[in-house]
Task: inverse folding
């Protein structure tokens, strides 16, 4: 069993790094793939990326708020939030390109949440960046800097260097019920800036496997069209308030069946909490163990001569880290957390992320044919 890239300590791609695989992104360099699978679910997507020359700088028509007579309408909501929606251009590679350059780039979407220039987008939109810029709804451009990101929630914050034209308001995602009208705004394919699509809330509280041993939870499902390049854009209600951050789309099951209208957004409750912490401190606090691990199912364990149990196999333990201080070592299999055994419904990383830095937790451990336990005081995951 080889080590996974996902880990709960120093790897920036840990856990939700897999979200880059399932996000609705557009990558323009010819070498990048367009349809990738993850967790047994076929997800047709492309990293939120598109070459800068392909990004239309023309301002879309009808950004201005509509007449007051359009009460409770989609148009009124779009008029309120539309000017705060941006295209995020991620210059990839070792060297940043000048504004408007044609180096390898990726594009996604974002939404301005502060008059100080803070913009919320997806973590997978800004991964691998060597330089960022944003394109405002009127077509003007600004350099931007990465403030911080959280791969587990797939949320990042960037800050525009130029004054921002408008600010969107956060809404209450917990008030949503299936059937509510919602609106997605973003830049599909990187070309169609500030495209508006509308639909309904199909369901709330959805969960999707992002990588072995981790499931992204508390997602809003919507049938509002979400396409490549919409990553990081807002999902809004009829009051023009942000109720979600669009993050991924499911196209099919891999069995040949194609699906439409399966878009997902990070609920505003989670997105705002993460974004506010990043704006204040540059990082959202996550627990740190100092390990590299891989998820082991009961079937995999049996095939390798182990008891038929689920767990996190430790392929590496960082010297001096919390796990090492608790006596854990490479080759150990963690089987439970605070008395709850791991299984297909109780995943290692999801359960760990419910804890906070400084918490004391008890792991069940399988080692060399015997069982025991280890008490760990969790550290704080270093900023990427």
Result:
């Amino acid at each position: 069993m080889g080590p996974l890239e996902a880990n709960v300590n120093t790897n920036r791609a840990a856990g939700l790094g897999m979200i880059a695989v399932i996000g609705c992104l557009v990558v323009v360099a010819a070498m990048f793939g367009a349809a990738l699978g993850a967790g047994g679910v076929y997800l047709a997507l492309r990293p939120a990326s598109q070459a800068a020359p392909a990004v239309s700088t023309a301002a879309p028509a009808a950004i201005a708020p509509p007449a007051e007579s359009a009460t409770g309408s989609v148009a009124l909501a779009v008029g309120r939030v539309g000017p705060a929606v941006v295209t995020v251009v991620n210059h990839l590679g070792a060297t940043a390109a000048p504004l408007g350059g044609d180096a390898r780039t990726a594009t996604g979407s974002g939404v301005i949440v502060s008059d100080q220039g803070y913009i919320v987008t997806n973590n997978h939109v800004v991964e691998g960046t060597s330089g960022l810029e944003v394109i405002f709804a009127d077509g003007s451009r600004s350099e931007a800097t990465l403030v911080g990101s959280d791969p587990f929630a797939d949320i990042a914050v960037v800050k525009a260097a130029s004054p921002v034209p408008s600010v969107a308001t956060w809404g209450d995602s917990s008030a949503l019920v299936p059937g509510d009208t919602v609106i997605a705004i973003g830049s599909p394919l990187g070309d169609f800036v500030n495209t508006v699509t509308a639909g309904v809330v199909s369901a709330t509280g959805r969960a999707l496997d992002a990588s072995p041993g981790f499931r992204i939870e508390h997602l809003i499902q919507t049938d509002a069209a979400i396409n490549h390049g919409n990553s990081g854009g807002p999902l809004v209600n009829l009051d023009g308030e942000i109720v979600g951050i669009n993050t991924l789309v499911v196209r099919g099951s891999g069995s040949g069946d194609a699906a439409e209208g399966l878009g997902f957004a990070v609920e505003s409750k989670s997105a705002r909490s993460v974004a506010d912490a990043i704006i204040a401190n540059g990082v959202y606090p996550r627990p740190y163990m100092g390990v590299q691990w891989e998820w082991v199912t009961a079937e995999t364990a049996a095939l390798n001569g182990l008891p038929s149990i689920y767990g996190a196999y430790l392929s590496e333990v960082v010297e001096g880290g919390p796990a090492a201080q608790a006596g854990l070592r490479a080759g150990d299999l963690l089987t439970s957390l605070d008395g709850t055994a791991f299984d297909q419904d109780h995943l290692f990383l999801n359960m760990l992320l419910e804890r906070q830095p400084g918490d004391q937790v008890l792991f069940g451990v399988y080692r060399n044919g015997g069982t025991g336990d280890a008490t760990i005081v969790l550290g704080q995951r270093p900023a990427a």
